[in-house]
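Input record (Table S2, row 162):
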Amino acid sequence: MSVAVYPGSFDPITHGHTSIIRSGLVAFEKIVVAVLNNPRKSPLFTVDERIELIRESMAEMGAEDGQVEVDRFDGLLVDYCRHKGARIILRGLRAVADFEYELQMANMNRHLNEEVETVFIMADDAYFYVSSNLIKEAAKLGGDVDALVPKPVAERLRAKLG
Ligand code: PNS
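Output record (4'-phosphopantetheine complex):
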């Protein structure tokens, strides 16, 4: 079975992310969405909340049972991939601005484990400008971001930020 790990902070998941997962399922039989448990960052949503939001968003998207697994990880991503038996890291690309950071990460991960390959999928152009940080900023300031995030996320943002 072709399994890809799709890692990230997902604070929170957006339609940019869901578009990558939808496209990723064309190429891979299973995607493990892996939420980084990073104690150095101060996220809006806890890891548990982020996982719950991703699961609800996958149900809303109509992902079939077994196609998408949602999990958390600490430590090195390549070690997590080995633990899951996955040889592909899936990452999304939006604008050129993403490229340098992604190139560095892909090369570092290849250095750490050359058996794991990073595969990039272009985000849907409707969501090219969408990032979790911009969503949080706009939502905090009262902006309407409902069209840019799954419904459970829109509801939770309203509950958290008013
Ligand atoms: O959504 P993000 O915050 O851009 O995701 C970044 C992430 C989680 C993919 C990256 O920070 C990561 O893989 N962290 C795990 C630590 C690691 O393996 N570092 C070495 C490779 S750069």
